[in-house]
Automatic annotation (TrEMBL):
Keywords: Cell projection, Cilium biogenesis/degradation, Cytoplasm, Cytoskeleton. This is B9 domain-containing protein 2. Belongs to the B9D family. It is found in: Cytoplasm, Cytoskeleton, Cilium basal body. It comes from the Eukaryota. InterPro entries: C2_B9-type_dom. Signal peptide: none annotated.
Protein backbone atom coordinates (compact mmCIF):
# COMPACT_ATOMS: atom_id res chain seq x y z
CA UNK A 1 0.00 0.00 0.00
CA UNK A 2 1.48 3.35 -1.01
CA UNK A 3 1.64 6.05 1.61
CA UNK A 4 0.10 9.43 0.91
CA UNK A 5 2.63 11.97 2.12
CA UNK A 6 2.39 15.73 1.82
CA UNK A 7 5.04 17.37 -0.32
CA UNK A 8 4.47 20.78 1.21
CA UNK A 9 3.04 22.19 4.39
CA UNK A 10 2.56 25.15 6.62
CA UNK A 11 4.53 26.15 9.66
CA UNK A 12 3.38 27.71 12.88
CA UNK A 13 2.65 31.40 13.32
CA UNK A 14 4.47 33.94 15.47
CA UNK A 15 3.04 37.36 16.21
CA UNK A 16 5.94 39.50 17.48
CA UNK A 17 4.35 42.55 19.09
CA UNK A 18 7.41 44.60 20.02
CA UNK A 19 10.16 42.65 18.28
CA UNK A 20 11.83 42.90 14.92
CA UNK A 21 12.10 39.12 14.55
CA UNK A 22 9.70 36.20 14.56
CA UNK A 23 10.85 32.98 16.22
CA UNK A 24 9.92 29.47 15.18
CA UNK A 25 10.98 26.15 16.64
CA UNK A 26 9.45 23.89 14.03
CA UNK A 27 11.07 20.47 13.58
CA UNK A 28 11.18 19.04 10.06
CA UNK A 29 11.66 15.31 9.61
CA UNK A 30 12.35 14.28 6.00
CA UNK A 31 13.38 10.87 4.69
CA UNK A 32 14.75 11.05 1.14
CA UNK A 33 15.84 7.99 -0.88
CA UNK A 34 18.04 8.57 -3.91
CA UNK A 35 20.72 7.01 -6.07
CA UNK A 36 22.13 10.40 -7.14
CA UNK A 37 22.20 14.09 -6.29
CA UNK A 38 19.91 15.18 -9.12
CA UNK A 39 16.70 16.55 -7.65
CA UNK A 40 18.27 17.04 -4.21
CA UNK A 41 15.66 18.58 -1.87
CA UNK A 42 15.41 22.26 -1.11
CA UNK A 43 13.39 24.21 1.42
CA UNK A 44 10.99 26.77 -0.03
CA UNK A 45 9.72 29.61 2.14
CA UNK A 46 6.85 32.01 1.75
CA UNK A 47 6.66 34.59 4.51
CA UNK A 48 3.31 36.23 5.16
CA UNK A 49 2.53 39.33 7.16
CA UNK A 50 -0.69 40.39 8.83
CA UNK A 51 -1.16 44.15 8.87
CA UNK A 52 -2.96 46.19 11.52
CA UNK A 53 -6.27 45.72 9.62
CA UNK A 54 -5.98 41.92 9.73
CA UNK A 55 -5.11 41.62 6.04
CA UNK A 56 -2.68 38.83 5.14
CA UNK A 57 -0.14 39.72 2.48
CA UNK A 58 2.89 38.02 1.05
CA UNK A 59 6.01 39.42 2.69
CA UNK A 60 8.72 37.46 0.93
CA UNK A 61 10.07 34.37 -0.81
CA UNK A 62 13.21 32.37 -0.16
CA UNK A 63 14.74 28.97 -0.67
CA UNK A 64 17.84 27.03 0.23
CA UNK A 65 19.18 23.60 -0.61
CA UNK A 66 19.39 20.95 2.08
CA UNK A 67 23.15 20.39 2.71
CA UNK A 68 24.66 17.34 1.01
CA UNK A 69 27.10 16.60 3.82
CA UNK A 70 26.20 15.00 7.14
CA UNK A 71 26.22 16.92 10.40
CA UNK A 72 24.73 20.09 11.88
CA UNK A 73 24.53 23.10 9.57
CA UNK A 74 23.74 26.76 10.19
CA UNK A 75 22.19 28.21 7.05
CA UNK A 76 21.13 31.74 6.21
CA UNK A 77 18.35 31.98 3.65
CA UNK A 78 17.92 35.41 2.09
CA UNK A 79 14.33 36.44 1.36
CA UNK A 80 12.95 38.91 -1.18
CA UNK A 81 9.71 40.03 -2.77
CA UNK A 82 8.79 41.56 -6.12
CA UNK A 83 8.83 45.36 -5.88
CA UNK A 84 6.11 46.10 -8.38
CA UNK A 85 5.58 49.43 -10.09
CA UNK A 86 5.36 52.71 -8.22
CA UNK A 87 1.59 52.63 -8.69
CA UNK A 88 1.39 49.10 -7.24
CA UNK A 89 3.44 50.20 -4.23
CA UNK A 90 1.07 53.12 -3.53
CA UNK A 91 -1.96 50.87 -3.98
CA UNK A 92 -0.44 48.31 -1.62
CA UNK A 93 0.04 50.92 1.12
CA UNK A 94 -3.70 51.77 1.02
CA UNK A 95 -5.36 48.49 0.05
CA UNK A 96 -2.81 45.85 1.10
CA UNK A 97 -1.78 42.95 -1.07
CA UNK A 98 1.03 43.58 -3.49
CA UNK A 99 2.69 41.74 -6.35
CA UNK A 100 3.05 37.98 -6.15
CA UNK A 101 4.70 35.50 -8.46
CA UNK A 102 2.40 33.73 -10.91
CA UNK A 103 5.06 31.10 -11.56
CA UNK A 104 6.71 29.82 -8.35
CA UNK A 105 9.55 28.29 -10.43
CA UNK A 106 11.00 31.81 -10.63
CA UNK A 107 12.06 31.41 -6.99
CA UNK A 108 14.61 28.73 -7.96
CA UNK A 109 15.78 30.05 -11.34
CA UNK A 110 18.40 32.76 -10.98
CA UNK A 111 18.40 33.26 -14.78
CA UNK A 112 14.71 34.20 -14.72
CA UNK A 113 14.71 35.89 -11.32
CA UNK A 114 17.44 38.36 -12.30
CA UNK A 115 14.90 39.96 -14.66
CA UNK A 116 12.63 40.85 -11.73
CA UNK A 117 12.88 44.04 -9.71
CA UNK A 118 12.88 42.87 -6.09
CA UNK A 119 13.26 44.16 -2.56
CA UNK A 120 15.32 42.35 0.10
CA UNK A 121 13.07 41.28 2.98
CA UNK A 122 15.43 39.78 5.54
CA UNK A 123 17.13 36.55 6.49
CA UNK A 124 15.87 33.22 7.78
CA UNK A 125 18.37 31.50 10.10
CA UNK A 126 18.16 27.70 10.03
CA UNK A 127 19.82 24.96 12.04
CA UNK A 128 19.64 21.71 10.10
CA UNK A 129 20.93 18.28 11.05
CA UNK A 130 21.61 15.92 8.13
CA UNK A 131 22.15 12.16 8.38
CA UNK A 132 23.25 10.27 5.27
CA UNK A 133 23.14 6.50 4.99
CA UNK A 134 24.45 4.10 2.34
CA UNK A 135 25.55 6.81 -0.09
CA UNK A 136 28.89 5.11 -0.62
CA UNK A 137 27.02 1.96 -1.65
CA UNK A 138 25.77 3.82 -4.75
CA UNK A 139 29.02 5.65 -5.49
CA UNK A 140 27.79 9.05 -4.26
CA UNK A 141 30.54 11.11 -2.65
CA UNK A 142 29.51 14.04 -0.47
Amino acid sequence: MAENRDREGQSQVDNPVNQEAAFFGHPIDIHFATKGLQGWPKLHFQIWHQDSFGRNELYGYGFCHVPTSPGMHNIECQTWKPSGTYREQITQSFLGGGPQLKNPDLIYSSALRCKLVTTAMGTIHLKIGVILRNFDKFGIEC
